[in-house]
Amino acid sequence: MALLPFGATAGALLDEWHVEGRTPEATPLHSPALERIRNGRSTPPRHGAQDRAGRARQRAFLIAALPEGDDLSELRELLRTAGVAPVGELVQHRPRPHPNTYLGPGKVSELKALLEAADANVVACDDELAPRQERNLETALGIPVIDRTAIILDIFAGHAHTAEGKLQVELAQLDYNLARMRGLWTHLERLGAGRMDGGIGTRGPGETQIETDRRLARDRIAALRGKLVEVGRHRDTMRAERERAHLPRVALAGYTNAGKSTLLNALTGSEVGVRDSLFHTLDPTTRTMRRDGRAYLVTDTVGFIRKLPHQLVDAFSATLEETRLAELVLHVVDASAEEGERTEMIRAVEDVLEEIGAGATPRLLVLNKADLLDSECRREIGFRHPHAALVSAASGEGLEALGDRVGGTFERMLLPVELLVPYAEGGRLAELHEVAGDLERTETADGVRVSARLPAAIAERYERFAVDGRSS
What we know:
Layout: E1 59-66, H1 73-81, E2 85-93, H2 105-118, E3 122-125, H3 131-141, E4 145-146, H4 148-159, H5 163-178, H6 181-184, H7 186-189, H8 206-244, E5 249-254, H9 260-268, E6 285-291, E7 294-300, H10 310-315, H11 317-324, E8 328-334, H12 339-355, E9 363-368, H13 375-384, E10 389-390, H14 399-412, E11 414-421, H15 426-436, E12 440-443, E13 448-455, H16 456-461
Parallel strand pairs: 1-2, 1-3, 3-4, 5-7, 5-8, 8-9, 9-10
Antiparallel strand pairs: 6-7, 11-13, 12-13
Helix pairs in contact: 1-4, 4-5, 5-8
């Protein structure tokens, strides 16, 4: 087998499907991150591309090891977004997953029989599997096993459109696959299995090939990090340009598919692409909202999810920084979700906000999709979240009140100032009208006397014009 270049396609570490007579069409889940080649596996997939009429080609059996509960709805939604049909599920209640096979040995045997009955051709796990767990499960079951992280990475790969987004996804995939590289080269490891016995034909390049590809992967990761640093500098320049305008910054954060992009369009009058799927928005999108003569910068960011892979948090740190630097976070929640599910969503987002350093940023809970609630649900959700804003980005309900609350929040952050701006500083006067919205001005012999309320950071820049040398 020839040495293959790394990073040509995000997540696709190898391209020689012919080692065991496989083709991309004959292997389920062949999109970028899920197309992890099993060249060293001795057992080919049970089901080829010619599936029975009316039967989905990619059929996943869902598994989970949970202390309690059996809700796999989020995993089913992830698979749906990835284009995979769930055909069954198995949950084992145990304090922690089995260290070698994730499920216990008895459940693994039970699972194998269920796979045959369900005609599944891939197993999807609701947790991130250790490489050892993944290999052992595939060996025991005879079909590919994918974990939650691989599915999410695959969705991200399909939704990344900008250069930065593609770099971030590739970096996350390479980081994820680096620890799993041994499984990709088990057919070469077998060549060296008899070295100690000195058998003829047993000496091979297995370990050398693994180490070579690990080095190539690390080199590619280093190169990607360097490119992302350059992209980050460009983003910093754009951010600095926005900051010169002294506009208040609002970030939309929330669980994926909570309707953040629809809300961005409704608040700003923009036409950002919207789709009913998880992680449709990866790259931050900033638009201007105008309210009572004042302009606000509103940024839509990548959606969060339970058990968000740490590779994505690391790779998308620059993107998530838009949330960290905002002066107000609108935490958007799907109000139509069941109470237990909604609570889990809120907790997951709060955890990620803490992780990225935005835990102390002022937040306003926005319950979206109010148009899907009946009167009883409205009363209940109002009782449970009395300080939240109930809105519908689709119908426009509650948006005026939300705009008032956003304006009121920033109003409370403003400092009153009394300034005397010389007539020669006409540009400064124009800036004040832009950033202060409403202000009072009086023409005097020495200049324009201005009474206004400004954000603290902006007030400092006008301190030299303060009456008696200070703000009041």
